[in-house]
Amino acid sequence: MAGGFLAYHEPGIVEILIIISFFFFLSLAKWLFNKVTRAGIIGQIAVGIIYGRPLANILEYPWQQTFLAIGYVGLILIIFEGGLQVRLDLLKQNFLLSILGAATGVCFPIGLSYLLLYLGFGYGAVETFIIGAALSATSLGTTFAVIASSAREIDLSQTRVGSVLVSAAVIDDVVGLVLSSVIDDLGELSGPDTSHANLGWIIGRPIVASAAMAILTPVFTKWVFAPIFRRWIEYKFARFDHVSNILLMVLVLSAFITIAAYSGTSVLFGAFLAGTFLTYLPSKHPDGPFVVMSREEGERNANKSPKFIHTFELYLLDTQQYLMEPLFFASIGFAIPFVELWTGKRIWRGILFTLLMTFAKFVVGLWIPLWKLMGPSNVSNPQKGSIETEGRSRATTKSPQVGKAKSGYGSASLAGLLLGSAMVARGEIGLLIIEVGYNETSYVSQEGFITAVWAILLNTIIGPVVVGYLVKYRGKQVGEGEWGLQKQEQPERPNSSGLDV
Questions:
Q1: From residue 107, how far is each of 103, 110, 136, 172 by CA, in Å?
Q2: What is the DSSP letter of 1?
Q3: Where does the record place it (predicted)?
Q4: Is the pLDDT assigned to residue 151 strictly greater than 80?
């Protein structure tokens, strides 16, 4: 009733010890797996499997639901941070290559699924499509976590191959989440009442919503919001430094994910667009208040402001890194039917399908050497401009210096291998799609569900492990190559319209 309250009582010592041990082992597992496999997220997924319903069920079910929700907010923040750090110049420069890579990353998993599951294992055509759609997604959360974890060796967000990776992963996830919406709505077609189901609307709505957000966001940002912000707002805005930044960040992120959710596309796509929106919003000319070399410069100068990524680091990065991100990867463990995986037939089918799906994403990396073969390399001039040093302070401490780019097919092949292996992880999006297909429709059998889970789980392990070792042993070569670190052009003065030219 109105005016009620929650009766406060001291939690029991067993509950307290369980929660303490859960968070302790999340941190310990990440550290151990980073040492052994260079992929700490695998340890956090393992802790989720042990503490969650799949195995020991140590955590109470309401806690697991709560941690899943908090972890998903952490996923939104991971992707939002990726949007804040993204190099828009590299995204534009490599957009066509990213489209080709993303298309390959969607078509190959679905096509190869039909070869093995439909023709080989005898699964249904719709069931095979749903499983292929689940394996066509690339885990955005894992992708950005891998980029962050590799920052000590090379800041992938400042590399050409990193920009292709981010773009292709985002596109693949948007396509995967659109397919998830379609699969979810297909439950209406398999249910008892199909007379009111509109197939065109079921398939068309998420596609139209995603395309509309992808097209309208940059258009309105460039021609409406950025000119207004740069001409009338940003100089007054900059006086309040982090306070004004965090308020705008919360408003923009909330608006984008709300629009995405109600329009029928993914809130994760909305989070990425929110980050890129804020990245583009401030003016880029040298006298602009947001053009600073460090957070400290923006804080101590009355006419300057820290960048949005600086504010994210100050207010949100620690909470995301040590609380929300571990809960997100643990929640993936909560969703894995671990005990049901272990029968002979399920194991060999799952491993065979895993190998096929690993190849289906590795093949995306072939586009880099093919791109070099098809035409002249379009690499930023290493003598022009300077790399931004903002972002995580640790990001460029050990990154290779940008000098004369090393060209050649060896460099392109290494970058292609890095791209392909980074695309392998499926993670949360793959699990979401296959669970929607299994729980919300009648098309996916238990055997098909288990086969898909095997591939999603093992690919989420294989991808980060390979990337971790590649970055450790070949990160410097990638950074010094033509697909590595790229310098940014010096910003120019704005024209009369308020837009930078």
A1: 6, 5, 7, 10
A2: -
A3: Membrane
A4: no
